[in-house]
């Protein structure tokens, strides 16, 4: 066996420390400091070499937490920039909602807004640079921690020193003494930065307190004062207002009942008068029987399975029409054949269930009938009209991918000159935009595409690909994913 293959085999057997949380990292760094052999130089040198992997793992925890804190800080800065830009374009709105003390003291309003935006954008640029430089260290760690850091422990400590130097903004209260070794100083600095990294975001934001978005109460103080004054004045005429409100409510009920009577026959054919609008056990029995008969028909046509039929029946028995509506939306409406054959019947049964499950109180019945009235055209219409209604429904309920598309376009704008590498600020901005897109993807993108979409984002994020390759990946994403077109 050759020397090289022997080294490779020994490296593959190295057990790297499993440290993933701040608590674990702090515990292990303190343990390293406590067990340091102070009085034996030879043993101290061997100990330093032995503990390099442990301290590197702990420094990686610091790195990960710092990166996450920076990304969260950039999100807060983004929110503040959006707020102050809105105030810049709506000066009167800001004047009426800001702290009244500012009406008489402090900077001129335009100057205040401009200063806040300038300060926020300055910090934003600094954090982009910091994020970009951290990414370089992250790439070095991924490349070397299983190889170079093991064969040459001084390289591992050089990486730790670079991380600690780059995170100089993480505040610590530590003073070294002349008797401390470089190893112990490094371990103490790492310990204190691990202790304080939780406050990194707050420490950064504390440097720009005046840019903070005022609370809801601070922004709406004038509105609430006016409301209190109105309520105070209204209290004097409480009896008259109460009588007017009750009269209006009764008139509204009458109007809704009159409207509902016109569409009642669609859902309860044959029942005369307003009693047809109220909850009746006989109505529920008829609606349930109609539903089961309908389910038998669609099961015979193999539109649903016996198991799906049982789920719908059980759901209706629990007082819900959601599963029946799901059948209509997912199995009946997408097919023009089934829509023409079953559409009007399905919507009629759903309308009955919807109203009857609304409850026995008149207020709930009115609410249900008002919604049913909106569905009445779909029930009464032919299959073609039903199809048009379904297209409208799909348009209303379709997910909006505009923010995903805009995010990718903004990332792609960083790759305009494919011949030049991104500088630290551009790379940091790219990482932040990708971080936001990943979060949106988890909430917005269909599950079937989500994994591949995130993998493509990670390819863009990687320093393995140059600017031209990153641009090609983005272009390919716009062609590959239908929701981006």
Would you write up a description of this structure?
This protein is mainly alpha-helical and 485 residues long. The chain folds into three domains: 14-216, no CATH class; 262-391, no CATH class; 402-484, no CATH class. Helix content is 74%, strand content 0%. The protein has helices at residues 3-12, 22-34, 41-50, 52-89, 91-97, 109-144, 148-151, 153-166, 182-196, 200-205, 216-219, 221-235, 238-267, 281-300, 306-317, 322-332, 336-356, 362-380, 383-397, 402-412, 424-444, 447-461, 467-480. Helix 4 packs parallel to helix 9 (182-196) and helix 15 packs antiparallel against helix 16. The protein is extended and about 95 Å long. The two termini are 56 Å apart.
Helix content: over 70%
Following the backbone from N to C, one meets helices and strands in this order, namely HHHHHHHHHHHHHHHHHHHHHHH
Sum up the overall morphology in one term.
Answer: extended
Mean pLDDT over all positions: 79
Count of discrete structural domains: 3
Cα Rg: 33 Å
Q: Which percent range describes the beta-strand content? A: under 5%
* Number of separate helices: 23
For the termini, the CA-CA separation is: 56 Å
Segments where pLDDT lies below 50 for 5+ residues? Answer: 1-14, 273-279, 359-390, 393-397
Helix-strand makeup class: mainly alpha
The counted number of beta strands is: 0
Sketch the major β-sheet. Answer: none
Record the SSE blueprint.
Blueprint: H1 3-12, H2 22-34, H3 41-50, H4 52-89, H5 91-97, H6 109-144, H7 148-151, H8 153-166, H9 182-196, H10 200-205, H11 216-219, H12 221-235, H13 238-267, H14 281-300, H15 306-317, H16 322-332, H17 336-356, H18 362-380, H19 383-397, H20 402-412, H21 424-444, H22 447-461, H23 467-480
Helix pairs in contact: 2-4, 2-9, 4-6, 4-8, 4-9, 6-8, 6-21, 13-18, 14-15, 14-17, 15-16, 16-17, 17-18, 17-19, 20-21, 20-23, 21-22, 22-23
